[in-house]
Design brief:
Number of helices: 10
Oligomer: single chain
Number of strands: 16
Strand content: 15-25%
Bound molecules: zinc ion
Structural class: alpha+beta
Largest sheet: 5 strands, antiparallel
Radius of gyration: 28 Å
Number of domains: 2
Length: 369
């Protein structure tokens, strides 16, 4: 199975001159698209009909390759508008009453508004960072010897797809470039162990199988706290921490046949919903938690393990035996239910609740064995 994901990067690093030039090209491109729409709209064109003779019909200074791009976009716009939109039930009812099925079937000729260009690899090349920018998108063979180099800064969302195949086709608008990434994904495993993971500071990860992972990481975090933020030593310590976390997670996935991993959703961490976020902020910042989740998620992907998250609301205060929920059930690393007396290590209790919250929830049904 192939999946495709797109990511947008800002055009704000483009100089005003280059921007003007880009918009000029966009206006011309748009004119050519509309020229082709006029032709394709009245005739039943398909991809096969897009020959050199057709491209050359348009009077423009754009290159043959650019004409090709605009013809393709024109055809796509015609084809998507040609399919009758889905009619609503009430529309169908009116048509039945009138015995006329053309009432709501009006077609509207599309129009290109010079707000975007879809450019193929014949125009676009992507180069890895010279100087301070991460990548350069170079548009060449546009026509009139125009060449536009666009500096782009990668951001967190973009960087997530480092291991994916970056397509050289792009969508370019007046404010951003949209890149697309592709990856071949194997289907998820249908058998194996289901675990909930509680992420914390004393133990990096505690699983619902009562495994305590990365308990030695705490010293690395304390080490970072001692360093001046932004200093070389600080950056080095952070790198070391990331490496160690990666090793812990990797080893765990290598040694265990997993089917599903359930974690707590990130966004609620800021609130003190689970009674330990203060501790979190002091020691393992939100950023670290996000990064840890990303590392876990990456390893689920590599190992074809399903990955889900649940609302963290009071997962550390609820008794997994009788469901009694009270803040006082938890005392540091110890959990003791004030209702039924069940007692266990507190993070382990959290991981049981995380796992069960998913399995007993709406989306957990298909994972029941
Ligand atoms: Zn209980």
């Amino acid at each position: 199975m192939k999946i495709k994901i797109s990511s947008k990067c800002s055009l704000k690093f483009l100089t005003e001159d280059k921007k003007r030039q880009l918009f000029e090209v966009m206006e011309e491109y748009s004119g050519v698209v509309n020229f082709f729409i006029d032709i394709f709209w009245l005739n039943d064109f398909t991809k096969k009909d897009l020959t050199k003779d057709v491209y050359n019909l348009s009077p423009t200074w754009l290159s043959a390759r650019m004409k090709q791009c605009s013809a393709r976009e024109a055809l796509a716009m015609c084809q998507s508008n040609n399919q009758y939109r889905n009619k609503s039930n009430s529309e169908l009812e009116v048509e039945r009453l009138l015995d006329d099925n053309t009432v709501f079937s009006e077609k509207v000729k599309p129009h290109h508004h010079a707000r975007r260009m879809i450019l193929s690899s014949q125009i676009v090349s992507i180069e890895q960072g010279r100087n301070s920018f991460d990548i350069w998108v170079i548009l060449s063979a546009i026509g009139e010897k125009i060449k536009i180099s666009i500096p782009v800064r990668q951001h967190r969302h973009f960087n997530q797809f480092n291991s994916w195949k970056l397509s050289t086709s792009i969508v370019i608008t007046r404010t951003y470039i949209q890149f697309s990434f592709e990856k071949e994904i194997e289907p998820k495993k249908q058998s194996g162990v289901i675990v909930g993971m509680d992420v914390g500071i004393n133990h990096l990860i505690v699983t619902s199988d009562k495994e305590f992972l990365g308990s030695e990481i705490k010293s690395s975090i304390i080490d970072i706290k001692r360093k001046r933020q932004g200093s070389k030593a600080y950056i080095r310590a952070k790198k070391t921490l990331k490496y160690r976390i990666n090793q812990v997670v990797k080893e765990y996935f290598n040694n265990k046949n997993l089917r599903l991993v359930v974690v707590e959703k990130l966004h609620n961490l800021k609130k003190s919903a689970n009674g330990r976020s203060k501790e979190f902020r002091k020691t393992l910042s939100n950023w670290n938690y996000r990064e840890l989740l990303e590392i876990i998620q990456k390893h689920t992907e590599i190992n074809r393990v399903s990955f889900r998250s649940v609302n963290p609301y009071k997962t550390s205060q609820m008794c997994p035996v009788c469901n009694h929920t009270q803040r006082e059930n938890r005392n540091g690393e110890n959990f003791k239910c004030l209702e039924c007396g069940f007692s266990e290590q507190a993070d382990y209790v959290g991981s049981l609740n995380i796992r069960d919250r998913f399995l007993t929830g709406r989306y957990g049904a298909c994972f029941k064995t």
